[in-house]
Design brief:
The protein is 21% helix and 30% strand. With 689 residues, the chain is of the alpha+beta class. It has three domains: 221 residues, Distorted Sandwich (Beta-galactosidase, Chain A, domain 5), CATH 2.70.98.60; 301 residues, TIM Barrel, CATH 3.20.20; 83 residues, Golgi alpha-mannosidase II (Immunoglobulin-like), CATH 2.60.40. Helix 11 runs parallel beside helix 12. The structure holds (2R,3S,4R,5S)-2-(hydroxymethyl)piperidine-3,4,5-triol. (2R,3S,4R,5S)-2-(hydroxymethyl)piperidine-3,4,5-triol (DGJ) binds next to loops.
């Protein structure tokens, strides 16, 4: 809901539990008024007439209060907008008008020929903000154009939560007090990065289920930056957007425009859990395509076979996968060109004739005949120098004249800002998807930008931004042309997870680390922002070959992976009959609980910190609890799990044991899990009676 004051200078957006208000002063300063619990327009108007504090000349009363601080004038905070023309730098804007379209509010400002429009839209309790810049004046350089600046209310002792990581260890939650100055996170790598998810949360005293939490998440899959500033008067603002430093984002020629990605903000007073559930609901309703459709159980061949693949051996794996109940069989890297290792073939998107003499169609049809969908791996944005593509078009990669072309994993990055590169990729991918009944594409990205140059193009070069736009364009075009195909975002595991890519993909590869214990921490962090519906998790072999050689039971591995979109990635040709039979039982169970996991509300009952951890999902009358015991020390009793979202006045039947539990007892005294020893795990289903 959007309400506007009679004088047209105070705007109030309201969601189910929260409100957001801004006000334009008589001097055309756009001030932030409110972000928090629901208020009435009269409350916003009362806030609007509160005088600004008076400061000595070394501070600005605007700092920490402006909705979108531009560069220049009486401001000392980091600007959200920084532009430069031949003649001058900064912005001195005047308010032009406001517009509404449906539930979207647009506030339009002008500085000579540059129009800056701030966009606001409420989606549930999530405020979506973005900015468009339309240049009808002289050419200008956009040094910085953040999507939004978020202003927090006056409070003491803010804490900052972030999700940090690296390859094999993504999305790990860190929480620490905020102090004066700035905390800056981001990616300078051309993709979202393993190092930080583009999200922060701020609270003062929240617990998992109580207290105020403010969060912001950026929808951009290239380089980005979020700066959280505690200003000299202790006020906190968060500004964020595309682009990684102040060296320039784009040039805007006369007549050109730029739209920033969305920076979404959420206030919740339901603690960290309530905030996460609101983010999950938002993504399922407004971001992830077809989120009401449950994702199938997949098999992925990577850990089983790596590059050593053939049609016959993939067929054998497919038979095994079908026999345990897998619904989607995905052939990973190695099916195309001369790609028999990571040294060659990337870029040549035709099936390897030695491995797939009649193309992918026979295997795809075979997989379909086994009752499964068929998927393939691609990494379209890259090329090995040892490839037909690179030999034909060495100028198609990002590079700088006279400088080295840095290789990571023996590959270079294609310059997707080029129309000819985009067209090549579109033709190749469209051709592959038309050549065989393919239902699923795992889209990988296995190195960061380094020598991101485009000889002949003026600086600042638009290839950083245009690479992401081209990626989005390709995904959009492929989805439109092949509406039955689902896409997975992968970047050496979880290197490209953000709201931007999630609006075009059906699920993400969470991490190359498939160790089921490490995964609990990764999944705990992931769940702060993203729903289980998007979180792919595989059961692989034990001991874990990829990361740490830790041995774990099939039970522990399945219960860990079943908390997301279940997949299997082990070498099924080496699993014993008993293991295959057990796997089949877990897959059957997963299919039964899948609607609750993928569409239900998630409650983190205990975080993974060494002993017992647990997650609960609730949907309608059904509740599913996943519990893991990392280690039991000194034979101490394992704590009971106090469940959430239950009706205390009714009873629940445990589908595992047939026991009847009172809701009030489960909520206040807890559910006993029966877990013992080390690396034990269980799934408990409860149904309201
Ligand atoms: C990195 C991915 O994360 C893996 O799952 C696998 O697809 C490899 N790339 C293949 O090269």
């Amino acid at each position: 809901m959007l309400e506007i004051s009679d004088n047209g200078r105070t705007w109030l957006l309201t969601g189910p539990t929260s409100s957001y208000a801004v006000h334009l002063t008589d001097a055309d300063e756009l001030l932030h008024l409110h972000w928090g619990p629901r208020i009435a327009l009269a409350d916003a108007e009362a806030l609007a007439v509160r005088p600004l504090p008076e400061y000595w000349p070394f501070e600005s009363p605007l700092d920490g209060r402006e909705e979108y601080p531009v560069e220049g004038g009486p401001r000392f905070v980091r600007p959200a907008l920084s532009v430069r023309t031949e003649e001058r730098r900064g912005t001195e804007w005047g308010f032009e008008r406001y517009e509404t379209e449906g539930d979207e509010l647009r506030l339009r400002f002008c500085d000579d020929g540059l129009t800056v429009t701030l966009h606001y839209r409420m989606r549930g309790d999530v405020v979506e903000r973005w900015v468009t810049l339309d240049n009808q004046g002289p050419a200008l350089e956009l040094l910085r154009a953040d999507s939004a600046t978020w202003t927090l209310p006056d409070r003491e002792e803010w804490r900052l939560s972030q999700l940090h990581g690296r390859w094999g260890a993504e999305s790990r939650l860190a929480r620490a007090p905020l102090t004066y100055g700035e905390k800056v996170i981001g990616s300078r790598r051309g993709h979202t990065g393993h190092q930080h998810l583009p999200w922060v949360a701020l609270d003062t005293d929240a617990t998992e289920e109580r207290g105020e939490v403010y969060g912001c998440a950026l929808g951009w899959s290239g380089s980005w930056r979020i700066a959280v500033a505690q200003l000299p008067d202790a006020r906190v603002q968060i500004t964020g957007g595309a682009g990684h430093d102040d060296s320039g984002l784009l040039r805007l020629a006369p007549g050109e425009s730029f739209t920033t990605p969305v920076f979404a903000g959420l206030w919740s007073d339901g603690g960290f859990g309530g905030a996460s559930r609101a983010w999950h609901a938002y993504q399922r309703a407004y971001v992830i395509p077809d989120a009401d459709q449950d994702r199938p159980v997949l098999f992925n061949s990577w850990e089983a076979t790596e590059f050593d693949i053939s049609e016959e051996q993939q067929s054998l794996l497919a038979r095994r996968a079908a026999a345990i109940g897998v619904e989607l069989f995905v052939v990973d890297d190695g099916w195309f060109g001369t790609r028999t290792s990571d040294r060659a073939g990337l870029g040549d998107w035709t099936p390897n004739p030695d491995r797939f003499p009649s193309g992918l169609k026979p295997l795809a049809e075979y997989v379909h005949a086994l009752g499964m969908q068929f998927g393939i791996w691609v990494e379209p944005e890259m090329v090995n120098p040892d490839s037909e593509l690179y030999r034909a078009h060495p100028e198609w990669v990002q590079h700088q004249t006279g400088r080295k072309r840095t290789e990571f994993r023996n590959q270079l990055v294609l310059n997707l800002a080029r129309d000819d590169v985009q067209e090549y990729l579109w033709e190749r991918l469209d051709q592959i998807l038309s050549s065989a009944p393919i239902d699923y594409v795992k889209w990988d990205f296995n190195r960061c930008f380094t020598d991101a140059g485009w000889p002949g193009e003026p600086y600042p070069q638009r290839l950083w931004v245009d690479h992401v736009r081209a990626l989005y364009g390709l995904l959009d075009r492929l989805r439109a042309a092949h509406p039955g195909v689902a896409f997975e975002s992968c970047s050496g595991g979880g290197g490209r997870i953000d709201l931007g890519v999630l609006s075009r993909t059906d699920q993400v590869w969470t991490s190359d680390n498939t160790d089921p214990l490490d995964r609990l921490a990764v999944q705990h962090g992931f769940s702060q922002l993203h729903p289980a519906r998007a979180m792919a998790a595989w059961v692989t072999d034990s001991p874990n070959a990829m990361l740490n050689h830790r041995a774990s039971s099939l039970r522990f591995r399945f219960v860990s992976a079943m908390a997301g979109v279940l997949g299997v990635g082990g070498d099924l040709t080496r699993w014993t009959e008993e293991e295959l039979a057990e796997a089949r039982e877990w897959v059957t169970l997963y299919k039964e609980i899948r609607p609750v996991v993928q569409r239900g509300d998630q409650y983190r009952l205990r975080e993974p910190r060494g002993g017992l951890s647990a997650v609960q999902y609730a949907l309608g009358d059904e509740t599913v609890v996943f519990a893991w015991l990392q280690a039991q020390s000194f034979g101490e009793p394992v704590p009971a799990l106090r469940l959430r979202a239950l009706d205390p006045t009714v009873s629940y039947e445990c589908l595992e044991t047939g026991e009847i539990h009172r809701g009030a007892v489960l909520a206040h005294h807890g559910l006993r899990t029966g877990l013992r020893g080390d690396l034990d795990a269980t799934v408990i289903r409860l149904r309201r009676i």
